[in-house]
Each structure stands twice: as C-alpha cells, then as structure tokens.
Amino acid sequence: MLEDRTTAAPSATAWPTAYPQGYAVVDVETTGLARDDRIISAAVYRLDARGEVEDHWYTLVNPQRDPGPVWIHGLTSEVLRDAPLFPEVAEEFAARLDGRVLVAHNAVFDWQMIAREYARAKREAPVRQRLCTIALSKALELPLPNHKLESLAAHFGVVQQRAHHALDDARVLAEAFRPSLLAAAAGGLRLPLHECRPLTEWSDAPAPRIGHQAGPGGYRSAGWRPSRKRPACPYPNPGRYEEGKRLKQGMRVAFSGDTSVERDLLEDRATEAGLHVATSLSRLTSLLVTNDPDSGTSKVVKARQFGTPVVDEAAFGQLLADVEPADATP
C-alpha cells in the first residue's frame, strides 16, 4: 500500500521554509536524444507547494522534420502534420512553467530540449530551477532496482497506462513526486535543486552519432550530448590556473552545470584555444567552469576537495580571449 511506503506528511509548522512554492512536472517526447532533435509533444502537471495537483496541460508540436522513433512514442508525421509549431505554443507552455521549479525524470534532458526550443523561437522559458526525480530518489535512498520511471512508479504503487505518452508520463511522475516530496520534507532533506540558464548561443548542427546502431526506419539511438572525439591536446598540462593570471595552453578545463552558451560550443572554443577539455574532474584539473558553485554536482564537490580553482562562464569567456601560448619545446 502507498501509505506503508511513504513518510507521514509533516505539520504546517514543520514544513521546510526553504522549499519552493510550486512545481511544474514536465515530460517531453522528442524526435531523438541529440542536440539537433525537436520536441513533438509536451505535458505539464502544475503542483502546489506540497505536491497537490492543480491542473494539467498537453500539446502536440509539429517538429517540421521526421518524427524519429515512432515505435517508441507513436507519433507519426500524419498525426503531427496539423499540430502547432513550437512558437505557437510557447506562450501557453511558459505560463505553465512560470514561477515554478521544473520537475522531470532526468531533468537535464527535458530542460535542455525546452531551452533549445525557446532559443529557436527567440524567447526564454521562465524557469530558474529544476529538480530531477532520479536525484531525489537517490537522496531519499529509495530501494529501487534501477532509475527508470517505471521503477519509481511501481515503488509508490502508481499505475502507468501509456508509457512514452507525455501526458501519462507526466501524470505518473506527478503522482510519484508527491510522496517523494513529503518524505523529503518530513526528513528535513535539502532538495537537489539546480539552476536553469536559458541559452543565448547554440548550434543546430547535427550531433555526431558514430557507433550507434540504427533502429527501425533508419533512426539512430544516441545518448544526450553524445561523446565527441576531440583531437588530443598537443600541449603538456602546465598546472592549475592562478587567479589574476592568464590561462595557458595545455591546461585541463572541466565544465559543470548549465551555461548560456551551449556546452559544445564552449568546449570547442576551449579546444581551439589549446586547452584540454576534461570530461571529469581530478587533482590534475586546472580549472572548473560553473555558474553554480554552491551546487552539489560531483565536479563541484571534487573541486572543493581538491582545491581546484573555480570561475563562472563570464569570467571564463574573458580568460579565453587571451590564452598564453605553451612553452616552446626544446
């Protein structure tokens, strides 16, 4: 029974004052998982401060391209042909998100897809924070066999009716999020909130999908932000960045969290300047670039442990304009 798996709701006086005042539980279905893919349907369940449903909304979106894995989401070109374009639903979508924390399962994916669509429409989504239910389930130490939505739903006794349908996925997540939120509040848990920064610069160039097998219809599956084969940095690592000095070719730079300039573009510029873009953070990392130095991401935590210098995106952009050449090899 659901009651046996959750913690009783805290009293009004015990509710954490730092918790958000409202949530927008979101699910988007897309033409694929890469940076050039598009949203084809979206659903939002609006919840109050304690996770109670206020209302819900759903729309199809014409992506103006092949719909991708129809065998997963069931949305064919014929179904989407007369659907509105994203700019035509952007205002209503924004009204559903405004002033709320965006909640999603693997929230970075949903947020990046939404941020891209708004950037294409020359608008900004009114989202400042997101909460990933995968991160929340880990923080609550829920005994799940894996981090799939179906496993989270089963834990709380939520029955899914149409998997990979945006409206039903959002409903299931909303129903599973409420007991998770109550348990977090009862335990005084700090919610794993992350900053959302709208994109001001991005690229719609197709992301490489090398090494992925083609599925039915020629669609190739790929992870979010597929790994890119960058040329090896030709310069030795000169050590850590020192405040007030220049970056030097060969320095190892890592990135964490949302950036206004799309991450791939930032990484490309760092590589072109002769820096070594690191996908993880170690004692050898010269610099961490993040706009949210107080977050609990693994890179930020390790940077604190190792004493790695940290700068924000704006400061990094200035440093990138004047990178010191590597020492000449004898």
What key attributes describe this structure?
330 residues; alpha/beta; Nucleotidyltransferase, domain 5; Rossmann fold; 2 domains; six-stranded mixed β-sheet; four-stranded parallel β-sheet; 30% helix; globular; DNA binding; hydrolase; DEDDh family exonuclease; BRCT_dom
Explain what the structure shows:
With 330 residues, the chain is of the alpha/beta class. It folds into two domains: 21-195, Nucleotidyltransferase, domain 5 (2-Layer Sandwich); 227-330, BRCT domain (Rossmann fold). It has helices at 2-5, 70-73, 77-80, 86-97, 107-120, 133-139, 149-155, 166-186, 263-272, 298-306, 313-320, and strands at residues 22-30, 39-48, 53-60, 101-104, 129-132, 193-195, 252-256, 276-277, 287-290, 310-311. The strands form two sheets. The chain has a six-stranded mixed beta sheet, sandwiched between helices. It has a four-stranded parallel beta sheet with strand order 8-7-9-10, with helices on both faces. α7 (149-155) crosses α8. The longest helix has 21 residues, at 166-186. The N and C termini lie far apart (72 Å). InterPro entries: BRCT_dom (IPR001357), BRCT_dom_sf (IPR036420), DnaQ (IPR006054), Ribonucl_H (IPR013520), RNaseH-like_sf (IPR012337), RNaseH_sf (IPR036397). Residues 22-186 form the Exonuclease domain. One of its GO terms (biological process) is DNA replication. Residues 204-241 are annotated as: Disordered. It holds the Pfam family RNase_T.
